[in-house]
Automatic annotation (TrEMBL):
PROSITE patterns: ABC_TRANSPORTER_1 (PS00211), ABC_TRANSPORTER_2 (PS50893). InterPro entries: AAA+_ATPase, ABC_transporter-like_ATP-bd, ABC_transporter-like_CS, BCA_ABC_TP_C, BCAA_Transport_ATP-bd_LivF, P-loop_NTPase. GO terms for biological process: L-amino acid transport. CDD domains: ABC_TM1139_LivF_branched. The keyword ATP-binding applies. This is ABC transporter related. It holds the Pfam family ABC_tran. Keywords: Amino-acid transport, ATP-binding, Nucleotide-binding, Transport. It comes from Anaeromyxobacter dehalogenans (strain ATCC BAA-258 / DSM 21875 / 2CP-1). Belongs to the ABC transporter superfamily. One of its GO terms (molecular function) is ATP hydrolysis activity. Residues 2-237 form the ABC transporter domain.
Amino acid sequence: MLVVEDLYAGYGLSEVLVGTSLQVKPGSVVALIGANGAGKTTTMRAVSGLLRPARGRVLLDGAPVQGQAASRIARLGLAHAPEGRKVFGPLSVEDNLLLGAYRRLPRFFGFHGRAAADLEHVYELFPRLKERRRQAAGTLSGGEQQMLAIGRALMARPKVMLLDEPSMGLAPVIVQEVFRTIRRLKAEGMTMLLVEQFAKTALEVADYAYVMERGRIAIEGTPAELARDERVLAAYLG
Ligand code: ATP
């Protein structure tokens, strides 16, 4: 489904990714963990086209997409819920969600009908968003904004979702709520690549995990395998 092969990317002269490779199989949840600055967010950005990789390949359903515009990669089925949520503050919750569907753009046939069905699905996952549908997104709490960012990504009916630190800045009880939703999406068959600081929480939901160190994958395995790995225990699960 999603294959990243020997990816190199950075900012100006600073190389951040130096040969990152990973795979996300259909219907699986894959966690990407690692210390601050290891390059997790940069990996997400290079995969979704927000950052142009210098070298390497990104395959979506077998087709190379590296170097293509983010909007095109999104249309091909990859949705990115970025770190820091990035909702459109002045717009209502519902308009933010509809913007997520806009990329699909079936302008001439039934945009409203299909978007309405997707809206209902998102509102069913996040009843809080439904209650606040007319409220400006910028006035939502952090947890609600995170739910909105995930909901907006879902509106594009993606094949693969990239979730970058959905727990960032949230109270523990809200983190649990966000992860309940991630579990539910997984049960519905959604394919997800999840970046998480809370390694333990991420490994509870993931089928497979990668540990990133200094721009490349240092350790990989199933959560059970990683939980037995001395290095992972010491650095991330201690
Ligand atoms: P964190 O968990 O702290 O978000 P991360 O693993 O996601 O860390 P990245 O955000 O990918 O790490 O950052 C990797 C490196 O790239 C860091 O050293 C960071 O300072 C650098 N970096 C990130 N964004 C930029 C940018 N826009 N310009 C220059 N350097 C950047």
